[in-house]
Amino acid sequence: MKRYWYFLIVGFLVLWACSSDGSDETPMTDDDISVTDDDGTPVTFDRNAMLVNWADNIIIPAYEAFEAELVLLNTAFDSFSQDQSEINLQALRSAWLNAYTAWQSISMFEIGPAENIDFRLNMNSYPTNVELIEDFLSGENYDLTLPSNRVVKGFPAFDYLLNGWESSDTARIAVFQNETRGGQVLSYMDDVLGNMTSLTATVVEEWKDNYRDTFISNDGASATASVDLFVNDYIFYFEKFLRAGKMGIPLGIFSGSPLPDRIEAYYQEDVSKELFVAALDAFQNFFNGAAFNGGASGSSLVSYLQDLNTLKDGESLDQLINTQIDVARDAVNGLSTFKEEIEDNDPPTAMRSAYDEVQRLVPLLKVDMVSAMSISIDFVDADGD
Amino acid sequence: MKKLAFTLMTVTGLLFVSCDSDDDNDTPDETAIENPAIYAFTRNNENTVNFSGQTTRIRMGEELISKLKDETSSEAAIDAMFAHVEGANDFSEAELNASDKSIKSKTAASNDFFFANTADQALIQADFEAWIAAQVDEVFPNWNTAAAAGSPGQIADGSSTRYISAKGLEYNQLVNKGLIGALMVDQALNNYLGTGVLDAGSNITDNDAGTVAEGKTYTTMEHKWDEAYGYVYGLNADVANPNDDLGADSFLNKYVGRVEGDADFAGIADDIFQAFKLGRAAIVAGDYDVRDEQAQIIRELISEVIGIRAVYYLQQGKQALDQPSPEFGTAFHDFSEGYGFIYSLQFTRKPGTNEPYFTKAEVDAFLSDLMDDGPNGLWDVEFSTLDSLSEAIAERFDFTVAQAGS
User: Fold this and answer.
1) Number of alpha carbons in the 13 Å side-chain half-sphere of residue A145
2) pLDDT digits 0-9 by tens, B272-315
3) How far is B86 from chain A (nearest CA, A)?
4) Which 200-239 residues of chain A touch chain B by CB within 8 A?
């Protein structure tokens, strides 16, 4: 018995020796900034210029545009508070949808001020928890700043409050005008909207006051540099929120069976697809460095890839990615509403095929693009418990 | 790398076995071991594998840890789940209520470690009861309050919400991960796989003669081995082939699966299963040397699972803190799981000895190091503490901090 263990140890030692020889060949560190193009020529891409374009022409203008939509939503809410008419309810719904659409252009910027306050989870956690909202409507105390209440506020809660109870606007208006519940819903909407407005103000102000300069001055190439951090956040967003959140989870890709109540804007029913496309458009515009308010494109992930002359199977990677985004968008645009696709088809083959086109972008971004740029992926699937 | 290592181990082992049989042919040949492909054993065409008591305790554990996350639970109700009495209406399942089994009676209760160490047994059982009490007294009243350094409440961990003490600990995780050591690992490695239990009374004579336990299809020795197996695989859908759905419970099974999922350790789940299976086949054949060799392999590998997860959570939590916006909730969740796995180290078993990899005193010192960098416990923990704890743990096993940490 003793000798048996002795041999085991010898076996381990021999193996360790072999293995360390093999793995020491390619020492790579995060501080290694020597990026070369396909010809082996060193590339000196100006990361600072790209960060400036991102911050000044895309991120801050997109935040400002979103904040402007929130102002309109507040105005529409004020009108509805004054006069609970059907036309004011419809105007409120339309303002909510405009703001929700504008949100799709900024949800991907979960870095710095947004990351500090978990902006995305606070603004758009769905499915919303209707049972808890109803508890709060009927008088239970609540504190909307608590993490456990992220599922009863933001756009999804507003969706429920606008669309999720009673069967028609006429019926809802009757409640608003005649019943205690009407006042409770109004008051809760007010709190939810106030929370969204103040969170947004925090993020936008912080970006303009301080973080813009921090962001663009951290222009090196390391795991903690702005480009590396943001590219990670950008791909994480694509994988978890665009791909999985808006399509994969409701389709049942990860659970085995479809979960139609997990679509975005579930109670509005007919806009999930449009919200997805708005998000994909914003994602692509960012990739191309397109100025948010129109005009010429600036330094971007595309120009970075072109500078590196990155090819994949003989084609330029930036074009491959843009083409695949277009293919994915066309596939999604060809669908009925997500709700119909999922509920009326068993299995929902058409939407699954469209999902597959979205999915094909993941390796292009997460493997090919980042390896060309020598960026390490810093996220893994969470432990799940 | 590990898989290769184990292959090499096997080869080395085989080489040695062949040498060995050349050297001493004086031992009489036992019945040849018939090692089946799956964990299925019969006598006269009847199944002889049974571990319903283990399955019951694991299911009780599942209800217990879920109750700890219901802020309306009373301390008495949770305590009653921990120390169930036959017939008491403690669980949601009638079958569990009717059972005469309890978690507490098997917590830190192995023959090898606690038969003559009831002093530590009492201290350990009291730890679990103290965590339950603290969850009810400190955390439940602050369920709808935001936590901060020095005050209990809730904190975000990604899209999840965690509920922590003033020092950042999730008591429910301490109970959950602590039970992996104090119940599953201790019972399997230090009770049922020990010769004190396997060979007790007339077990050897009975097993050699094929004399079954009264009214049963199995010999007592077979059953004891299966009870060890049940603490690892008690809730798997196909108990004969359990590795298909590792993660069937929230205890040891889940973390064998998690370690298997780390490329540095791929193959470990099959190695554990193969050792259980061969050991059981050896009992059928009356070959107690092979049985005990397999017990040593199981002890080493399952102990390693505990050590790997302890280091993993310390390192994961450190990563969550080490960034521009430290994720305190994520880190505290990791550290709370790590706390439970460190606690569990005192129930591991160094092969060929009657000792754990770390004594209770060493474990207590680790845990106090983790919590004493400042007045607010985990809120103040320093990276150097996390690294030195990780190193101290990994150093006694055959893995590195880097291998375990990601």
Assistant:
1) 7
2) 999 999 999 999 999 999 999 999 999 999 999 999 999 999 99
3) 31
4) 224, 229
- Could B144 and A116 be called an inter-chain contact, meaning their C-beta atoms sit closer than 8 Å? no
B29-40 pLDDT, tens digit each: 557 999 999 999
Which residue in chain A has the smallest CA separation from B142? A146
Number of domains, chain A: 1
Q: Profile chain A (385 residues) by mean pLDDT over runs of 10 residues.
A: 42 38 37 49 82 98 98 98 97 98 98 96 98 96 97 98 96 96 97 98 97 96 94 97 97 92 97 98 98 93 94 93 98 97 95 96 96 90 50
What's the gap in Å between the CA of A355 and the closest CA on chain B?
A: 23
B8 → closest Cβ in A3, A15, A116: A15
Enter the tokens of residue B396: 């006694």
Indicate the average pLDDT of chain B: 93
How far CA A299 is from CA of A290, A303, A304, B110, in Å, comes to 9, 6, 7, 66
**Inter-chain CB proximity A4 and B13 less than 8 Å:** yes
Using CA of residue B1, residue B259, residue B400, residue B394, what is the dihedral sign? negative
- pTM summary value: 0.84
Cα separation, A281 vs A101, whole angstroms: 11
SS3 A111: coil
Parallel, antiparallel, or unpaired: how do β-strands B46-47 and B42-43 relate? antiparallel
SS3 B161: strand
Question: Is A20 contained in some domain?
Answer: no
Q: Which residues of chain A lie closer than 8 angstroms to B70, CB-CB? A: none
Q: Residue B313 in contact with residue B337, Cβ under 8 Å? A: yes
Phi, psi of A290 (to 5 degrees): -70, 130
Which residues of B make CB contacts under 8 Å with A? 1, 4-5, 8-9, 11-13, 15-16, 144-146, 154-156, 158-159, 161, 250, 254, 258, 289, 293, 316, 323-325, 329, 334, 337, 351-352, 398, 406
Which residues of chain B are within 8 Å of residue A230 when distances are taken between CB atoms?
none
CB contact under 8 A, A14 and B156: no
On whether residue A33 sits in a domain, the answer given is no
Structural domain containing residue A198: 47-372
Give contacts of B334 with chain A, Cβ < 8 Å: 383
Query: Distance from B144 to chain A by nearest Cα, in Å?
Result: 7
Q: Does A19 touch chain B (CB under 8 A)?
A: yes
Q: What is the pLDDT of residues B145-176, one digit of tens each?
A: 999 999 999 999 999 999 999 999 999 999 99
- Complex ipTM value: 0.79
Q: How many CB pairs under 8 A join A and B?
A: 75
Yes or no, beta carbons of B154 and A150 under 8 Å apart: no
Residue A97 in tokens: 């949808």
Q: Under a CB-based contact definition with an 8 Å cutoff, are residues A379 and A236 in contact?
A: yes
DSSP assignments along A214-275, one per residue: HHHH--SSSTTSHHHHHHHHHHHHIIIIIIIIIIIHHHTTTTSS--GGGSTTTTT-S-HHHH
A360 belongs to a structural domain: yes
* Residue A63's CATH number: 1.20.1420.20
| Within-domain flag for A147 | yes
Sign of CA dihedral A185, A186, A191, A197: positive
